[in-house]
């Protein structure tokens, strides 16, 4: 079915290699473009890029908070309708045009270079804060080589009569995270200076990244054999360990208990769509780059489907592992709470030990309430409810650095589990960073901003150094708040805008008919009706809906953030504070500049062309004038 | 006479009870044996109480450096089923005089470790109400363990960077030498006839761009 709606795009054939040229390139393996050593490297790199920290600490939270097993329905539907088509699109266009993100959009239409530049900016900003999270992971990893773990007990105060008060009021894991790691200030304006230990870890993270990306895919291709496979091994080890712990099965049951009413809530579908989109690392430009190193006849359709399935299954697998450990932790907390109450009762009423057990606890409470209600009220026993403890859903850094670390301290041989866990997080993060670096370095090369004869090592090194220096903003005491800001604004709306522009550009500017022919040339058959429907209508519409809702909710909600303030009333609960007024400027820079660079670059180019055309006309007139005068003279 | 004798016999315990019950210098003690030891828990009986009194006498001896404290100096009352009771310490010189609270507290704090071990319990399971436990000193390392691991990782990374950069440099040098060598060979091929080409095993020769179908550059 030929599409009648197609935007005019003169000169397209001159900008892109034809099918015949591609065949020639294929046969003689000419060109300085790097290549994958084998298909496994390519698949592992893409899987590593897609599978990241979000699969471990965002998806389980979403799953549990949006109705457990019922969340699978919107997630899988949107995976098929949104994730797979967009992934296939990026793979195919990269493989066909054999360039990085800037090169691809420039080939399609020079006015679309803004899309590539936006991808580069977003990759740079996201890479900056993502690697800071990896620096935190490294800090915890370095600290895991001691027994007892430093976050298992509170530090003692000066006269050794008790624990440090900040720790006493909250918990050892909270104290270690907020005080010993971040040394966080109560407000974002309080910069608090650089924390030298995190600077060292950040330096370590960037140099490790540089060593793996030194020569582009030549080095990353070797690194991914470890970084992409190790997380699965560790997840399996944790699953086996988790299932042998008390209470783990209740956690898994809680995760998957379906609440079908949640399907009627639009925010469930929105969150599912957003999760699918961000989970696939689309619109960063890295996937387009990686595909461009493939051979022309690589079956990108099959790759897209396989990687999508792997990504989806990894999310579900990680959720099972995480919730088995959370179930264990909730059960331990419940037991502690109950035992604490029983001890209080025994101490108050001087009863022998063993009189009150978990089984007769409730009966005993009732008995006491009826006989001595006054004393009973005074006791102020804590309510212990396992459901509340299980639904203390945490996501993000809170899950990894607070909840999970606490669970690890309760396991035997804690340092071993801690080391394994943080190695897994490190590998997950590092393999995603490879894609980010690719999304920054290749556009830099394509834009010809720096001399071409500089070797690739210099490009990657320069990117790492500049990112390290700018990421020092996250190493201050208030760094955690800056990171949350970046995560909320730089890594959300711009990506949706870029992806929408990408799909419209390929389908309506490049032309879906030409694209179908390309796929026939590359893969051997035209994409079937599923791809046609999703590329032309469904995926752009879903993206547009998610973008509009995201935009509306972001703009309408009050700009607040949560702080750790030991002096607040509700300590240790995080306090909600308003952002200062100048934050709007920062938000505009983060979200606005990448999004606006898409039309911005097009306008600048149009103006430049207009000016140069005028100049040409003037030059022609002056030349013809001179010729005329020459003729008259002759 | 008999009444006098009876009074003398029963007075000390009665007086002792009064000393213990009403005094301000007493401490309440609470043991949680089952919580601390689980299945290995022992029964609390008179012998265990005897052990407790003797360990306290020991603590007083060590604290005051007087070897005169005996088990009779430790008086116990308010024994409950919880296994909690109150004790006071009488002075060695005068059985009606009690040792002040602060002294007893110091004695207990100095020797808590020994008292705990005598009962196989800990600060959590053998509580002296009002005496805060002396927490163990934090472990002070010469070098923090995390710095050691950091040093190892950074060292490995530095070695990796140097190795990769050296290999790039040596590769480039080898490529330059090869190019210089090949250019000499090239002249040789041109001078000789076709057989040299085939002996090299190349495919179809060199792709000559001058004859390509590229009309990209020739549009008027």
TrEMBL record, chain A:
One GO term describing the cellular component: brush border membrane
Domain of life: Eukaryota
Cell compartment(s), UniProt: Membrane
Transmembrane segments: 42-59, 71-91, 111-142, 196-217, 229-256, 276-293, 305-326, 416-437, 458-477, 489-512, 533-552, 582-608
BP-aspect Gene Ontology terms: sodium ion transmembrane transport
Key words of the record: Membrane, Metal-binding, Sodium, Symport, Transmembrane, Transmembrane helix, Transport
PROSITE patterns with a match to the protein in the record: NA_NEUROTRAN_SYMP_1, NA_NEUROTRAN_SYMP_2, NA_NEUROTRAN_SYMP_3
GO MF entries: metal ion binding; neutral L-amino acid transmembrane transporter activity; symporter activity
Recorded topology in the membrane: Multi-pass membrane protein
Record has Ubl conjugation as a keyword: no
Presence of the UniProt keyword Transmembrane helix in the record: yes
Residues binding Na(+), per UniProt: 48, 51, 55, 279, 311, 428
InterPro entries listed in its UniProt record: Na/ntran_symport (IPR000175), SNS_sf (IPR037272)
Family (UniProt): Belongs to the sodium:neurotransmitter symporter (SNF) (TC 2.A.22) family.
Protein name in UniProt: Transporter
UniProtKB/TrEMBL annotation, chain B:
Signal peptide: 1-16
Assigned keywords, A-Z: Cell membrane, Glycoprotein, Membrane, Phosphoprotein, Signal, Transmembrane, Transmembrane helix
Domain spans labelled Collectrin-like: 23-220
GO CC list: extracellular exosome; plasma membrane
Ranges that cross the membrane: 146-166
Bilayer topology annotation: Single-pass type I membrane protein
Recorded coiled-coil stretches: none
InterPro entries per record: Collectrin, Collectrin_dom
Keyword Signal attached: yes
UniProt-annotated location(s): Cell membrane
One Pfam family cited in the UniProt record for this chain: Collectrin
Main subcellular location of this protein, as a coarse class: membrane
GO process annotations (BP): positive regulation of amino acid transport
Name of the protein: Collectrin, amino acid transport regulator
């Amino acid at each position: 079915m030929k599409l009648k709606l197609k935007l005019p795009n003169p000169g397209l054939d001159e900008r892109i290699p034809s099918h015949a040229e591609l065949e020639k390139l294929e046969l003689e393996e000419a060109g300085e473009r790097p290549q994958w050593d084998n298909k496994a490297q390519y698949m592992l790199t893409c899987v590593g890029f897609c599978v990241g920290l979000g699969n471990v600490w965002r998806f389980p939270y979403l799953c549990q908070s949006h109705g457990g097993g019922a969340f699978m329905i919107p997630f899988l539907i949107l995976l098929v309708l949104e994730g797979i088509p967009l992934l296939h699109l990026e793979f195919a266009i990269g493989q066909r045009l054999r360039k990085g993100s800037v090169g691809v959009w420039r080939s399609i239409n020079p006015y679309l270079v803004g899309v590539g530049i936006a991808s580069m900016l977003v990759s740079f900003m996201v890479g900056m804060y993502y690697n800071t999270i990896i620096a935190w992971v490294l800090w915890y990893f370095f600290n895991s080589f001691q027994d007892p773990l430093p976050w298992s007990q509170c530090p003692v105060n000066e006269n050794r009569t008790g624990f440090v008060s900040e720790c006493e009021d909250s918990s050892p894991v909270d104290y270690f995270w907020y005080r010993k790691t971040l040394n966080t200030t109560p407000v974002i304006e309080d910069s608090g200076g650089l924390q030298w230990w995190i600077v060292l870890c950040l330096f370590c993270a960037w140099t490790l990244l540089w060593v793996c990306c030194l020569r582009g895919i030549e080095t990353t291709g070797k690194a991914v054999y470890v970084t992409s496979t190790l997380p699965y091994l560790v997840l399996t080890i944790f699953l086996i360990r988790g299932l042998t712990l008390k209470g783990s099965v209740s956690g898994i049951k809680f995760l998957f208990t379906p609440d079908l009413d949640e399907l009627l809530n639009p925010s469930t579908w929105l969150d599912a769509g957003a999760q699918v989109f961000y989970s696939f690392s689309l619109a960063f430009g890295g996937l387009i780059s990686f595909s461009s190193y493939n051979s022309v006849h690589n079956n990108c359709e099959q790759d897209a489907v396989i990687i999508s399935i792997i990504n989806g299954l990894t999310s579900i697998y990680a959720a099972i592992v995480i919730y088995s450990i959370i179930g264990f932790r909730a059960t331990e907390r419940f037991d502690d709470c109950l035992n604490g109450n029983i001890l209080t009762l025994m101490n108050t009423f001087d009863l022998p030990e063993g009189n009150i057990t978990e089984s007769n606890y409730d009966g005993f409470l009732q008995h006491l309430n009826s006989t001595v209600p006054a004393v009973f009220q005074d006791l102020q026993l804590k309510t212990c409810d396992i459901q509340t403890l299980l639904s203390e859903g945490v996501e993000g850094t809170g899950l990894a650095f607070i909840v999970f670390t606490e669970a690890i301290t309760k396991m035997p041989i804690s340092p071993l589990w801690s080391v394994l866990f943080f190695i897994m997080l490190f590998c997950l993060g590092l393999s995603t960073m490879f894609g980010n670096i690719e999304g920054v370095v290749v556009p830099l090369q394509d834009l010809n901003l720096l001399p071409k004869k500089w070797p690739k090592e210099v490009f990657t090194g320069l990117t790492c150094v500049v990112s390290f220096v700018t990421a020092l903003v996250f190493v201050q005491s208030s760094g955690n708040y800056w990171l949350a800001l970046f995560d909320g604004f730089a890594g959300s709306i711009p990506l949706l805008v870029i992806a929408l522009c990408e799909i419209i550009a390929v389908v309506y500017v490049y032309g879906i008919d030409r694209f179908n022919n390309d796929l026939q040339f590359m893969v051997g058959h035209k994409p079937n009706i599923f791809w046609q429907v999703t590329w032309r209508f469904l995926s752009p519409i879903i993206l547009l809906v998610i973008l509009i809702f995201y935009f509306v909710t972001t703009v309408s909600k009050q700009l607040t953030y949560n702080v750790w303030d030991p002096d607040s009333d509700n300590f240790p609960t995080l306090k909600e504070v308003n952002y200062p007024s100048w934050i709007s400027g920062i938000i505009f820079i983060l979200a606005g500049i990448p999004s606006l660079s898409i039309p911005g670059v097009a306008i600048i180019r149009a103006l430049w062309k207009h000016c140069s055309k005028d100049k040409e006309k003037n030059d022609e007139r002056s030349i013809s004038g001179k010729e005329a005068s020459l003729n008259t003279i002759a | 006479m008999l009444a006098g004798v009876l009074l003398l016999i029963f007075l000390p315990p009665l007086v002792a009870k009064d000393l213990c019950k009403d005094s301000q210098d007493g401490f309440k003690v609470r043991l949680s044996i089952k919580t601390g030891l689980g299945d290995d828990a022992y029964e609390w009986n008179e012998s265990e109480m005897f052990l407790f009194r003797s360990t306290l006498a020991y603590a007083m001896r060590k604290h005051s450096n007087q070897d005169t404290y005996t088990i009779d100096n430790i008086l116990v009352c308010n024994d409950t089923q919880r296994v909690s009771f109150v004790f006071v310490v009488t002075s060695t010189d005068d059985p009606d005089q009690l040792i002040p609270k602060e002294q007893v507290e110091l004695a207990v704090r100095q020797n808590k470790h020994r008292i705990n071990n005598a009962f196989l319990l800990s600060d959590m399971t053998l509580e002296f109400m009002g005496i805060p436990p002396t927490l163990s000193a934090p472990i002070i390392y010469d070098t923090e363990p995390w710095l050691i691991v950091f040093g190892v990782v950074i060292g490995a990374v530095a070695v990796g960077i140097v190795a990769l950069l050296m290999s790039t440099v040596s590769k480039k040098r080898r490529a330059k030498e090869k190019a210089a060598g090949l250019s000499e060979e090239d002249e040789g091929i041109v001078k000789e006839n076709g057989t040299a080409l085939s002996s090299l095993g190349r495919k179809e020769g060199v792709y000559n761009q001058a004859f390509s179908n590229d009309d990209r550059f020739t549009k008027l």
